[in-house]
Design a protein that fits this description.
heterodimer, A: alpha/beta, Rossmann fold, Dimethylsulfoxide Reductase, domain 2, five-stranded parallel sheet, 17 helices, 21 strands, about 35% helix, B: alpha/beta, six-stranded mixed β-barrel, 6 strands
Chain lengths: ~475, ~140
Amino acid sequence: MSEVIKNVACPYCGACCDDLVVTVENGKILEVQNACVIGTEIYHHASREGRVGSPRMRQPDGTYKDITYDEAIDYTARMLIKAKKPLIYGFGSTNCEGQAAAGRVAEEAGAVLDNCASICHGSSFLAIFDTGYPSCTLGEVKNRADVVIYWGSNAAHAHPRHMSRYGVFPRGFFTNKGHRGRKVITVDPRYTDTARCSDIFLQVKQGHDYDLFDAFRMVMRGYVDDVPEIVAGIPKEKILEVCDIIKMGRYVHIFFGMGLCHSDGRNHNVDIAINLVRDINEITKCTIMAMRGHYNIAGPGVVWSWQFGFPYCIDLSKGSHAHMNPGETSSVDLANRGEVDAFINIGTDAGAHFPIRSFEKLGSRVPMVTIDPSVNMAATVSDVHIPVAIVGVETGGICYRMDNVPIQYRAVVPPYNGILTDEELFNRILNRMLELKTEGIECDGKWEYAKPLPSLIPVKIEPEA
Amino acid sequence: MNALHLNMVTQRAVEEGEAMEAGKTTQKYFDVCTVIEMNADDIKAMEIPPNAIVKVTSECGEVIVKAIIARQTCPRGLCHMRQSVWANQVVPPRTQSTGEPQYSGFPVTVEPALDARIVPAVELVQKACNKWNGKLLWPM
């Protein structure tokens, strides 16, 4: 007998669509309605053949052997105790309960605790620390915003339902004409699918967003005559046209994405975007929001700020206090400099999404544990791979949407093969660490499992012969 | 056939997102991510047909992919790779002290490599980490 579950929240992007309808039967997912193509794939992936059903350990010949959860937890706990500066990185795809439990483990281990914001909206955090965050909820955008700007953000691809739920098309309380009552402006170096849905497209020269923000600020502050004829590839009259639309708007909202954070300038691009919002607020109401990537990547920022005082790049290795300094304590920089001696990859895939020149320094030199429901790239080079339940599919929990609104996620099917949740796993790792410490296991930087694997073929990265 | 010097951005595409959730060891992920999206005129300037195999080289690495006409139009001089194992073979790890690598806006050279082999993701990652044992344990 099939069961229809309504109002299910989707574990893909930061838009956290919570209107999914999932049909299940005998613990299998039959159908997903309302989700985008990516969200649908997550649910079907949970029911697909070939899932990893128990922890696995890498063997000398490169194959994997199933081990028990107790063995995997013991391995991880020993690794964390013995390492002088382990790195625990990921957390975009887990719930706040798991993040809090990992925080307790990191504190006990004296680890560096970092999340995917480190390579995503980390520079937005830096700008927000400097300049503030005049933001709002997505509900306010839907109900009030009549001018919406997507700057360096391709919502059509990265947040597929964002435009239909919040940014462009929905009819809200004060925006009852939907997209016909909204002016949508996209700023991007490529003519993206988001740009196709916009009224105005500004094709900014790649890496020159700062210049264009500066020109906007000059116009908002009344220095129109001093604006050059072309800024960042955009003619002056186009800039003035857009500024007029902004000034005429009742409620202006800017969504910004990786176009600002991944290009030259990083946090300075976000900094000037926030300052533009300040300038616009002298004229009309304006707010700004980061297009957060994962469904709960806002979660660690909230949970760890409460636990440690910092949202990401948290170095707990001093033992006495938490310390945050991106560039020094950020995962990619730690990897680049070879400063960590153990690595836990959880709820993300550093193997696929770090630059390979960074990841190879972790993957080839330090013991590594991957905690993830699927076989990802990090798992293919990890010493131990521990599968966990998929949040939003097999377990529930709290997740923070991109506007920092907590959404209650829930399970629609039981965990595959009885696998543990992230929270249960980290709690058991913590308990095992405490047991091992009472048995006299100490941090000595020596790790008996970190031996070279003799039967493997050493390969230097060179083009194929 | 000519080499071109282009400016590269690597960002998400919905095709890549869907394939990633299906599994990074799948044929689907391989098919949608082993591409570099370019302006049609840039492909012409290289004197290769669309979908030809090219070598992309940056300051820190190189990768073999297929050159396609961008589905979301790139202006001339700009190219795009979908964020993935292949794109990250050439992404410079420098972070401007923010923790964020240079995923967008770095110079690359694209040159025809018609007979080169496009390497599967697992092989690329395991080779980089010195853990490649000569065979794919997760057949695509």
